[in-house]
Amino acid sequence: MTKAPQVLTEFFWLEQLPRIEAYVARGGYEALKKALAQMKPDEVHDEVRKAGLRGRGGAGFPAGVKWGFIPKGTDKPKYLCVNADEGEPGTFKDRSILSHDPHLLIEGIVLTSYAVGIHAAYVYIRGEYEMIARRLEGAIDEARRAGFLGRNIFGSGFDLEIVVHRGAGAYVCGEETALLESLEGKRGNPRLKPPFPAAVGLFQCPTVINNVETLANVPFIIRNGAPWFLDLGVPKDGGTRIFGVSGAVAKPGLYELPSGTSLREIIFTHAGGIKDGRKLKAVIPGGMSSPILRADEIDVHMDVDSVAAAGSMLGSGGIIVIADGTPILQVLRKVAAFYAHESCGQCTPCRLGTSWIHKTVERMAAGRGQAGDVDALLRLAANIQGRTLCPLGDAAAMPVAAIARKFRTELESGLDRAGVRP
Amino acid sequence: MIKLFIDGAAVEVPEGTTVFKAAEQAGIALPHFCFHPAFAPEGTCRLCLVQIEGSPKLELSCSTVIREGMKVVTQSPAVGEARRGVLEFLLAEHPLDCPICDKAGECKLQDYSRDYGLTESAFREFKEKRDKKVAIGEKLLLDRERCIQCTRCVRFLAEVTKTHELGVFERGVRTEIGILDGVPVQNGYSGNLVDLCPVGAITDTDFRFKTRPWFLSRAESVCPHCGRGCNIYVDYHPGLPRVPGSAKVFRIRPRTNEAVNGPWICDVGRYGYVRAQNAGRSDRPFWNKDGAKTELGWDTAMAILGDKLRALVDAGRADRVAVAATSWLTNEELFLVKKIFRDDFGSGRIVLCDPRPGEGDDFLRRPDRTPNARGARELGFDPAPPALEALARGTEVLILFGPHIAEHFRPAELRAALDGIAVKVLVTPHLTGLEGLMDGVLASATPAEKDGSFTNFEGRVQPFAAAARPCPDVRSELEILAALAGSLGLRPDYYGRLTTAAAVRRELAKEIPFFGARA
Amino acid sequence: MSAAFSPELIGKIEALAGRYPVKAASLLPVLHLVQSERGHVSAEDERAVAGLLGMPPVKVREVMTFYTMFRRIPVGRYHIQVCTNLSCALAGGDSLAAHLETKLGVKLGGTTADGKFTLTGVECLGACETAPCLMINFDYYGNLDAARIDDLLGSLT
Prior knowledge:
The structure holds three protein chains of three kinds.
Chain A: H1 20-25, H2 30-38, H3 41-51, H4 63-68, E1 79-84, H5 93-100, H6 102-116, E2 120-125, H7 130-145, E3 161-166, H8 176-183, E4 207-211, H9 212-224, H10 226-232, E5 240-247, E6 253-258, H11 263-270, E7 280-284, E8 293-294, H12 304-309, E9 318-323, H13 328-342, H14 348-365, H15 373-384, H16 392-406, H17 408-418
Parallel strand pairs in A: 1-2, 1-4, 2-3, 5-9
Antiparallel strand pairs in A: 5-6, 7-8, 7-9
Chain B: E1 2-6, E2 9-13, H1 19-25, E3 49-52, E4 59-60, E5 71-73, H2 77-92, H3 108-115, E6 134-137, E7 140-142, H4 152-160, E8 166-169, E9 176-179, H5 192-196, E10 202-204, E11 217-222, E12 231-237, E13 248-254, H6 267-278, E14 286-289, E15 292-295, H7 298-314, E16 321-325, H8 331-344, E17 350-352, H9 373-378, H10 388-392, E18 397-401, H11 405-408, H12 411-419, E19 423-428, E20 440-443, E21 452-455, E22 461-464, H13 477-487, H14 492-495, H15 501-511, H16 513-516
Helix pairs in contact in B: 7-13, 8-13, 8-15
Chain C: H1 7-17, H2 27-38, H3 43-53, H4 57-66, E1 78-83, H5 86-90, H6 93-104, E2 117-122, E3 134-136, E4 139-141, H7 146-155
Parallel strand pairs in C: 1-2
Antiparallel strand pairs in C: 1-3, 3-4
Helix pairs in contact in C: 1-2, 2-3, 3-4
């Protein structure tokens, strides 16, 4: 393996990077200048489409294709919503981009808006990131003063305004239609699809929704071209990923690596291996929603398709490492509690299923487990999965089912220990 | 038209139809809680899932729009399992208090659980404790343990009345419906929430614990409380064979008619039945003689009135009869009033005396307080209240239909004017005090108790049939009028045919073009 | 009873509302603003916001109770929000929360008698590389242990 190329995070060490001067000094806004001066919107779009840039939020959908769903020739306003509602447990990459390099995101927003013909962008940022939201607003002011935002950017005739909108503590708002509802001042209840946001989105208008990291890649694609981007990763998933590694590793942190880097390499080479000389027990590879991998399943390439083929999900790239000695029931409790707490409650299987799972797991943890509880969890997960209005149901069911299936023996021996097995 | 296949059978429906409606058209009722035809699909209960060929997951029938050649399966192991899953989740957190629930017998959760064979639960956890008796309106109680979060009630108040009294608070399993800081649901249409609720979460204190739905019979009728003519069901207990007179109306519910009232009715109409039906009734005829009230049988009462009228006729003073009708009467009854007293008696004093108009709203409620003002107008009645002097002068027999004259004149004024009239008869379903001024009272039926038709304010003639008749000793005005015509021997070849509402309606249509065009 | 909104606050609310094509869209930012000025959002504040944004008051309550960051009752001067999610738990987060409970003498969700601290357990704060972590008001603190917590609490006046 050659030395990992750093793209997004290359200059994160620069303390002055959040300031526009530092960003410009390292080549910032060059892509925007190039695009506005030399490229038509469609050419910007084409370059991103050719790069095959896949969404970094969790679903991995190609951004260029998504932009293509926006109807042509509509007389309605079009909107860009930036998904900065980073709430997937184990995920902290967007916070790092936002706090180290807000102008990179702004440049990505302007380029995307230019490509799609958008004049108003909303950054939906999780409410807890209050300081970061303020910093981003400061950066937006700087960019406006420098002529990179606002009316007639670089004399191109292209206008764009960006509004920062803080969420207020609801994981489900990371789901794109819940995000739209929340942006409209409502409860974050996901919408029924169709219609899809590209047709009927924010304020009933065509809307593109992209994750922070996704947009942060756009300036580099425009500057260096799609082939360069594709070269960085694997054929169907180009570029790098900012993997966040947390849990029982020696060096938790963010590691920007090419898409397709092996999970084993990320944990053992980059993140310093397991802490305190313990052994690896399991890994959650892409945020809490992604099905758990056992220690013997980590020889997987971390790109969208490879992780899916391994029965899990690249998701947000938030890798949570679990060491031997950590009871799997502890992990399961956190998973069950989280989704029960974050279910919006509007649809039956998610509202009641996540709660039922949570109650069952808590009972098991209280030493009152019964024979059949593991099967009950599997059945409950199956009753949720594929049956809910939005993907949160699947996100809640998949990790529970994976833990129940892969760690059945450990969970059931726990029941034995509690001495209540009939 | 688009052709698709539902459970193998070809169905043709217009473009834009949903799978749910296409199935309905094909005679297949799909289970559902959150969907209601008055609202956009919500898609949250997840019960109406069906299989659509080519789709990897089950799809919602309520929101999926049909496509040419679509193949839909509404019953399959996968569909059944998904629906059972939803029902199992709902039942797990449900109190299962059907024995004391007013909704039992007409509860969708109960019906579907039976349909899908759910008898045992794998639920080993504690059910959430929630408030079971939250007063959310004058007559509305919310039981949060029974609530399944379909939000029909919330959507009704947001989209139909636009009054927004209810909201969805908290989230996840703690999600609950509620009013804001004690401000009750109060908008004149609150009772619809009870009908909308597919389970027993919102119940009506007016109906609560009074009877069970399976004891009730249902009759189609038309609401008499204003000129809208909302279509209703009268739910009544038909009475027990060996207990005469125990028939009773227990509730009024809307009967969907998109052209008139949609699926809704107002609270005045819904709860007005108590006043109209069960309170202050005049339940048998009586005569005031020498200051004493004497109850009479119908034959005697009718004979007395007949004698008084025959005396006038015989004396050649038939035109000395005056009649104040009311647009509480049906088209058919008003027609007979005119035929008998204007045409045959030759009286020029046939007037209308309606209650004073009240307040309407911009939805269903009309300011008029009677069901048939338009019908009366089309039959030639002047809607203006009568001049008392003109009504009373020279009158020897006065027949009042309804007690509304007392609303227009002071008691002393009324007494003075009526004092000179030899015979005063009140035909009324209700006693309001006016009977003290009368010589005789004939106890009549309410609209729910008779056949007939009303013409609503838009000119729509709406026939209806009698439901219960809780007071056995009342007669409809039509019966009274037909009996009078018979006993007086008026044109037997004509009146002899007009003894039922249907027969009178046919005659009405023949004689008056307005009704002819609407027959 | 809380005092009516000052003209300045109303001006700020209207400015926020002006950033959206529909006034009601500014509800979350407006509630954040009101909460930051008043410490919490009372029922009267909700009604005032509803009036300014032209929306039914019940919609404001719906939103207030959906999002965990909005507070309908006052909190302590220092609002400690400790992550109870997985990455922090794997790094000792649960014992950290227990330590805070003992130290402050309140359970998660409670406020100290002197009104200085409110302790809340929250889901992942998105700072897992510094697990276990917590937030005090809007400041993040990571890589904590009992000793560092004690120092931190001691530094707050």
